[in-house]
Amino acid sequence: MILDLNKFITQGRVIWSELEDILVRIEQDPDLKLDMEQLERFHYLYQRTCADLARLADFSARQEIRTYLESLVARSFSLIHKPLRSPENFKIFTWFFSGFPSTFRKHMTAFWISAAILMAGTLFGASAIALDSQAKPALMPFSHLMQDPAQRVAKEEAAQKDKIAGKKSSFASYLISNNTRVAFFALSLGITWGVGTVLVVFSNGVYLGATIADYILAGQTRFLLGWLLPHGSIELPAIILAAQAGFILAGALIGPVRNKTRQRALSLKYRLRNISSDLFTLMGGVCLMLIWAGFIEAFLSQYHEPAISYTTKILFGTTQLMVLFIFLFFSGRTKPESDKGRQIP
After folding, report:
1. FRET label pair with 123: which of 12, 73, 169, 326, CA 20 to 30 Å apart?
2. Hey, is 203 helix, strand or coil?
């Protein structure tokens, strides 16, 4: 029985408004995914609204309140019991152009941590080479980087025949498999509470920094940019995103995350289930990026002047990096709507 209708409406207004806000968000963005905590909160608000509607069953005054609550309950019920999309209705373009960048933006803290660690490793490797040029064998994992940069550039530019003719596809496959292995290694080492992921990202930064410093100090900056930018503008961000996924996994393992509705710590099972779809989405995008980077490295990055001008390659890599930035930070954003639904009477 409701003794004070005005008090009942005042107290219920907070619950009803929050439920309607969630409904409007979901209705405006059908692809919106709620995490476990948000789902539990939505279910709690739905139950409270149903209970409030039941309390109004025998109360004839303020018919508009009953109509409003019936609308909220009906909309919530239709969303809760909406049939799942079948696999054949899954849209790969929607996933790539909306789901992937949205998931990336959802975990920006993990991304910036990963980027900062790579930058720290790059600065360390560059500083080590600048201070001690004899440190190359300890810092660079590839034999072709051991020679003097100027000698290598002269040799590459003087080459009369294509050194990977007939082997481009197999070389691209090797690059893709190797880089994908590193990416999944960075993800899987998140199970070490992120320590292993830190080491993978930092060590790759050291290799990168040492190579950059070696070529710049030798006066081969144009060759360096023309060589690295075409594929590195995609490959390096892909590795950072893979490490981002590793740090998301580490965060779920470390916990605890508290549920605001019931004020209790979520179990490890819930925390892992809560991030599983995000990890699959991120790593799916990373794999596509590395496939593209592998083909670019095999079919473009390995060719230098006079075959292909460095300016052309630098412009290609720079444009590619800008497009990737716009894609990750802006693709899939939904326009804010001014209409927030019916107002509470």
Report:
1. 326
2. helix
Is the pLDDT assigned to residue 246 strictly greater than 60? yes
Among 118, 98, 166, 130, smallest CA distance to 330 is for: 98
Name 291's bridge partners. none
Burial class (CB within 10 angstroms; exposed 0-12, middle 13-18, buried 19+) of 185:
middle
List the one residue out of 203, 156, 143 whose CA is nearest residue 301. Answer: 156
The alpha helices in 29-55, defined as continuous H runs, are 36-55
How is residue 278 written in tokens? Answer: 């995000």
Render pLDDT for 305-316 as a digit per residue (tens, 0 to 9). Answer: 988 999 999 999
Composition of the chain by helix, strand, coil, percent to 5: 75, 0, 25
Pick the closest to residue 197 from 237, 238, 244 (CA basis). Answer: 244
Q: What is the pTM of this model?
A: 0.72
Alpha-carbon span 16 to 11, nearest angstrom: 9
The residues facing 265 across adjacent strands are 258
Answer whether residue 345 shows pLDDT above 70.
no
Type of residue found at 65: I
Contact, 220 vs 304, CB < 8 A?
Answer: no
Instruction: Find out whether 191 and 249 touch, Cβ atoms under 8 Å.
Output: yes
